[in-house]
Amino acid sequence: MATRDSVDNLIQQCEDAIRFANDQMQEVRTQEHHNEIGYTDALQSLENAYNDLAKLALSANAQQREQLHRMRLQLQQLQNQMITHPY
User: How many of the other CB atoms lie within 10 Å of CB of 45?
Assistant: First the structure.
């Protein structure tokens, strides 16, 4: 079973990845050039967080799975947004 601390830590990691991705998207929108490495790193951090959520969900209880699922949807939505409207 997943511990409360492991779920909380992973949620924090996801929120950090979301914050980084949003910062990269904002940077791209406000500058004429874009930082491809930063943008790619942001996408990779979202993907890593998504995969970590999927792994942890396997050992989570129902309430934790719901919380992880909601976070996974947020990550997926942001990934899709970054891919379909990159600049």
Answer: 20
pLDDT in tens, 50-62: 999 999 999 999 9
Nearest to residue 14, comparing CAs of 70, 84, 87, 81?
70
Q: What is the pTM of this model?
A: 0.89
Domain locations in the chain as residue ranges: 4-84
List, as own/partner pairs, every contact residues 9-12 make where C-beta atoms lie below 8 angstroms and the sequence separation is at least 24, other chains included: 10/49, 10/52, 10/53, 10/56, 10/68, 11/67, 11/68, 11/71
Q: Are 79 and 46 in contact (CB under 8 A)?
A: yes
pLDDT tens string 24-67: 988 888 876 667 888 899 999 999 999 999 999 999 999 999 99
- C-alpha to C-alpha distance for 33 and 15, rounded to whole angstroms: 26
